Amino acid sequence: KVTCNSHGQDSSYFLGWQEYEKNPYDEVKNPKGIIQMGLAENQLCFDLLESWLAKNPDAVSFKREEQSIFKELALFQDYHGLPAFKKALVDFMAEIRGNKVSFDTDHLVLTAGATSANETLIFCLAEKGDAILLPTPYYPGFDRDLKWRTGAEIVPIQCSSSNGFQITESALEAAYQEAQRKNLRVKGVLVTNPSNPLGTTMSRNELDLLVNFVTDKEIHLISDEIYSGTVFSSPAFVSIMEVLKDRKLENTQVWERVHVVYSLSKDLGLPGFRVGAIYSNDPIVVAAATKMSSFGLVSSQTQYLLSAMLSDKKFTKEYISKNHKRLQKRQNKLVSGLEKAGISCLESNAGLFCWVDMRHLLSSNTFEAEMELWKRIVYDVKLNISPGSSCHCTEPGWFRVCFANMSEDTLKLAMQRLKSFVSSITIDNQTHQDLKNMRKKNRTKWVFRLSFQSFHDREQGER
Amino acid sequence: MAIEIEKPSSVRLSKVAISKTHGEDSPYFAGWKAYDENPYDEVHNQSGVIQMGLAENQVSFDLLEKYLEEHHEASSWGKGAPGFRENALFQDYHGLKSFRQAMANFMEQIRGGKVKFDPDRIVLTAGATAANELLTFILADPGDALLVPTPYYPGFDRDLRWRTGVKIVPIHCNSSNNFQITPQALEAAYRSAESMDLKVRGILITNPSNPLGSTIQSSILNDILDFAVHKNIHLVSDEIYSGSTFSPSEFVSIAEILRNRNYKDAERVHIVYSLSKDLGLPGFRVGTIYSYNDDVVTTARRMSSFTLISSQTQHLLACMLSNHEFTQNYIKTNRERLNKRYDMIIQGLKKAGIECLKGNAGLFCWMNLSPLLNEPTRQGELELWNIILNQVKLNISPGSSCHCSEPGWFRVCFANMSEQTLRVALQRIHKFMEQRKVCSVNR
């Protein structure tokens, strides 16, 4: 385990982080530093959390109705989890889904973050020689979380921009065949819905396709719904549980093969607190995962704080609503800022990032060119964004750009830098083009007429 | 004739998921069940089962609560919560620097300042349970073996073996020399592993020992380290009970042994620690790995992503353990109170005619009931255990659940209840022993 590289920490994804660490942007102290846009954090609603904390001091001073429960919490290490917290969490999960589905605390297992939840599920469902199918592009962390200690393999379900990176029946089938070709037993499909890095919710059609596929192949389906609370515009979020319910599949075999992963790291912006959960309809999986959670329990201090917070329905209602509004506003700012730089992105309705199309800025349609462009953006433009290749995207030129982990002003600055950069490339390309054509024997008029403006227009057309 | 072919069952779960290696079907856990169904309560259920199978430290909560009362900023990020968002976002697997620093200091204080710990070698995990599993993943491959002296903490069967696929080969210890580890026992264990075609990757000791409740002597620690060097394997020292030694001078950490050798051979040594026992905070999930090996530190850190400590809790404990006045007083007072409890139980048992292994640490004593066995076997031990559970109504841990090679020994915890409850438990034992005397006289 020490010698293998499945932890993936030598990838470019992490190199960008390193550069940022060496020269981080600060509004006052380092205005020329690198702006972090590679971190999917939600920093937009801390004021709501802070004001709740100010009004509810008991939640952090180990008191319940003025009585000290410190000893009780200090000793509480039951891997079944704090009942009040589990109740509050399943209610919250239901609320996020518009109460179209409900969750049973007996099927919920608490883990130290979704990182732990995903790994634990794979330990329960797969082993060396097995494969999990994942649609590309996907969260780079999965390479570590699903494969490293479990020994399982990932086989990608290739998705492409031709249909907005949606999952198709043929892509699913092709992935399955590919796994067989590699002599791997397919144990399940893992999707992230809403998607990271796409920022889109899965359509009902895709969800139906998935259900049909895992039913037919008799395999598991894991739906990582960590971003479920970040859906800020239509189409509304449809959880896999809703689909199963609508199709009346509760007492069928596939019901017990569907598992949901959740966490408070993105919706509530609390990644430091390590709060994750596995929800499974299979009692054996619940039992095994519960025991495994011993290796990554949630601090009882934190369970208590969050049980108080999430039980406050007035608070959760306001929070969910304001979170949506603020995320939408922020996403709009990123999208329009990119537009002004002549850059488009995949139309999105969720998440903390946009999936940005910079294919037109590549010197060639290759991943080498993508790396080249990425390095320029990190080192010259001083923006740390995530290259699509780190997400296993099959098409070069796509980047994930986060928008919720910085102030509005910082986002504005980032957009300005990007705009200047794009202009400069355009001029460079233009100059380069000029020189190239000058050397040609036959000079045509259009070469001299090409200005930045018309080049820009041409780019617009290609969107 | 047509043969009905059964539809193949749906896709199998992993071997790990369906295996019994989590160990939770053992009698050890049956005792818990009996307690859960009829728990003793000083007021509401005086005839209930007294829980003496849980190694919790409940003797020093008042000290913690006093600290919290006087230092609200530790649990609340200060007025206006300026530190809240930074703390809520902090998920760096290096861990809060201030917390690592405080932890290093605390570990030094426990060892009377005899060794120093580098905060940058501290890797944080959600409890020692996670730390031990993580180290096993790093030091061994599936099918390899770790040598563990018996009797040992039952949880190791799950923590070291379940998901890792690593095997435990016991280093047999017995009462003839107070269950101390000998070079012969080490050698025998190694050979036993070899005979089973298992590659030994390391030794894991618990010092002070659970369930023996005693510290490992300096000379033996040296023997163990020499053995590890000779076989070129790792040595993990789980020092989770280091702060529970009744007298500070009696605990010798493997860190001291290394220091005495100028840290030669240190790169094979790793220490596990936790605040679950010394500070009585098992719910907060605070464990650490301290390794003298850079590669292990780097890899453990990355792996700790699966088991990070809540930043809220790191903040609380960074404040608490940085408070020198608090830690000095806590360590000293905690030791005194545990010592007092230990004396109380030993005297009580002695009066009842029961001998225990001479202990000097931990939250339990290692009681010898072998004279009471119907037969000197595991079966005899379980029969006796059942009687104690169902008639005397005390849940204690049978030595067989700790893989003890001699039947008749039991681990009895004394720090997870009030003094009054302990007195009740001792009275019950006394009565039980009296009745047995009467019975044997009348036979």
Automatic annotation (TrEMBL), chain A:
Annotated metabolic or biological route of this protein: Alkene biosynthesis; ethylene biosynthesis via S-adenosyl-L-methionine; ethylene from S-adenosyl-L-methionine: step 1/2
E.C. no: 4.4.1.14
Assigned protein family: Belongs to the class-I pyridoxal-phosphate-dependent aminotransferase family.
Keyword entries, A-Z: Ethylene biosynthesis, Fruit ripening, Lyase, Pyridoxal phosphate, S-adenosyl-L-methionine
Catalysed reactions, semicolon-separated: S-adenosyl-L-methionine = 1-aminocyclopropane-1-carboxylate + S-methyl-5'-thioadenosine + H(+)
Cofactor: pyridoxal 5'-phosphate
Protein name: 1-aminocyclopropane-1-carboxylate synthase
One Pfam family recorded for the sequence: Aminotran_1_2
Species whose genome carries this gene: Gossypium armourianum
Molecular function terms from GO: 1-aminocyclopropane-1-carboxylate synthase activity; pyridoxal phosphate binding; transaminase activity
Entry-linked InterPro entries: Aminotransferase_I/II_large, Ethylene_sulfur-biosynth, NHTrfase_class1_PyrdxlP-BS, PyrdxlP-dep_Trfase, PyrdxlP-dep_Trfase_major, PyrdxlP-dep_Trfase_small
Domain of life: Eukaryota
An individual GO BP term: fruit ripening
Residues of the Aminotransferase class I/classII large domain: 35-418
Entry function: 1-aminocyclopropane-1-carboxylate synthase (ACS) enzymes catalyze the conversion of S-adenosyl-L-methionine (SAM) into 1-aminocyclopropane-1-carboxylate (ACC), a direct precursor of ethylene.
Top EC class of this enzyme: lyase
UniProtKB/TrEMBL annotation, chain B:
Pfam families in alphabetical order: Aminotran_1_2
Segments traversing the membrane: none
PROSITE patterns linked to this entry: AA_TRANSFER_CLASS_1
CDD domains: AAT_like
Keyword tags: Pyridoxal phosphate
InterPro entries, sorted: Aminotransferase_I/II_large, Ethylene_sulfur-biosynth, NHTrfase_class1_PyrdxlP-BS, PyrdxlP-dep_Trfase, PyrdxlP-dep_Trfase_major, PyrdxlP-dep_Trfase_small
PANTHER family: AMINOTRANSFERASE CLASS I_CLASSII DOMAIN-CONTAINING PROTEIN, BIFUNCTIONAL ASPARTATE AMINOTRANSFERASE AND GLUTAMATE/ASPARTATE-PREPHENATE AMINOTRANSFERASE-RELATED
Similarity field: Belongs to the class-I pyridoxal-phosphate-dependent aminotransferase family.
Protein name (Swiss-Prot/TrEMBL): Aminotransferase class I/classII large domain-containing protein
Species: Gossypium armourianum
